Amino acid sequence: MPRNAEVIRQWTILRDLEASRRVTIADLASRTGVTTRTIRRDLEALQASGFPLFDESIDGKRYWTLEARAFKRLDETGFTLAELSALYFSRTLVEVLAATPFQRDVASAFDKLTAVLTPGMRQFLDRLPLVIQAKGAAPAGEADQHKLDREHIAKLLEATLQHRRVSMNYYSMSSGREKDYEIEPYRLVYWDGRLYVLAFVEEYKEMRTFAVDRVQSISLQEQRFTPSEIPEVAFQHSLGVSEGPPEHIEVAFEPRIATYIRERRWHASQQNKDRADGGVVVSLDVCNDWDLRKWILGFGPLARVLAPPALASQIKDEIDRAAERYAVE
Question: Hey, which residues does 185 pair with through a beta bridge?
Answer without folding.
Answer: 199
